[in-house]
């Protein structure tokens, strides 16, 4: 059987030096940082991806280990394996670059939880980071790569440097990339439960799987939080090995963030429905040019959200127009998932149903993510 490298986990990253941030950036000095992930698919071997894309100085890694996770910061010590990079156990990640580890001959399956531990001996500066990692991470002083449990560890709510795992799988394996904002990334779903709607949908598939390239706060047309969707399509979709389909939810932050009191852009910079339609069309055209199936998603409801200035009559009008276009016959996508209808309050469809509301009126909880996944016709994902 012919095999090739296929993405089994992805985490899209953010520049810690952005002017507007929803998350607190940070760095490390003489710390072991331990982070866990869950594989969306399996294979006969794997390799780990680390990124210093936005760092301002090279990152020295004094050691990196891979292990099977037990619980919290715990690992199975019998599975603890040093990672190597071109044969070396220590490595420096240059500014703006990504490193891929040497293959680890370890058969793995979908749903398996693994832990990557990095020892960072020097001052890293602010780290290239992920807004919503799979689960809480942990950091302790000194080199504790092989420790079975990290005692008295600092908990990390953001992810750092770890951007993906590839597995050696049959060459005909095809996967989907979920691409967009917090509704994709799974903000406000239970950490460590893998309950984002793409993860839940992935578990419904009989062939292939879905990896997640969402960024909470991300926009279609403007940078911050993260590079805007049209700018990151090459890196976060087209460069993902095995991709054949793309699921998209984007636009709520374009509409809402300019009105937020903490945001530097005035509300007058809010894009029009025509602007978003033009951007979504450009995105679909770019994906089609690469030979991919592009599946759009209607913009979720958010009326009554708790963040000052995000909900406005002007923004609601833009959302209404964009969703009408997506549900009509003029859009360029191969299909459209009605994400909004899956979680909307039947009595007030501009709001999230109470049982699906994560509490802020802007995001869905675990039950809401399940409702979205269950509403998708899996035959659209002919992987």
List the domain count as a whole number: 2
Name the strands of the widest sheet in spatial order.
6-5-9-2-11-12
Distance between the termini: 19 Å
What is the CATH homology-level superfamily of the largest domain? SGNH hydrolase
Number of beta strands = 19
Largest sheet: 6 strands, antiparallel
**What order do the helices and strands follow?**
EEEEEEEEEEEEEEEHHEHEHHEHEHH
Uncertain segments of ≥5 residues (pLDDT<50)?
A: none
Report the C-alpha radius of gyration, rounded: 20 Å
State mean pLDDT (0 to 100 scale).
96
CATH-defined fold name of the largest domain: Rossmann fold
Domain SGNH hydrolase-type esterase: 178-371
InterPro entries: GDSL_Rv0518-like (IPR053140), SGNH_hydro (IPR013830), SGNH_hydro_sf (IPR036514)
Protein name: GDSL-type esterase/lipase family protein
Word description of this protein:
The protein has 383 residues and is α+β, with helices and mostly antiparallel strands. It folds into two domains: 3-165; 174-380, SGNH hydrolase (Rossmann fold), CATH 3.40.50. The protein contains eight helices and 19 strands. The chain has helices at 182-185, 197-202, 229-238, 252-256, 273-289, 313-326, 339-343, 366-375; strands at residues 3-10, 31-38, 46-51, 59-61, 63-68, 81-82, 91-93, 98-100, 113-120, 129-130, 137-141, 154-156, 159-160, 162-170, 175-180, 210-214, 243-249, 293-297, 335-337. Helix 6 (313-326) links the parallel strand 18 and strand 19. The longest helix has 17 residues, at 273-289.
